[in-house]
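Could you join me in thinking about how sequence relates to backbone shape in a protein? We need material for that, and I hope you will provide a protein of your own picking. Label the sequence line and the structure token line clearly, so we can match residues to local backbone shapes. Would you write everything just below, so we can both look at the same thing?
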Amino acid sequence: MASKKGTSPNVYKYYKVDGDKLSKTHKICSRCGKGVFMSEHKDRKTCGKCGLTEFSQ
């Protein structure tokens, strides 16, 4: 069965657990808001929903 459009079955990879603390490993899109993570590439971060791209220097 295929997953629904817009869902991310591997979202657990975007969090890190240290004891009883939870931290995010990926940046959240500043345009879309909570729940939308940006993908990390070699030279940039990109939002898959709205297309926002931030280049690193």
Remarks:
- The chain has a mean pLDDT of 85.
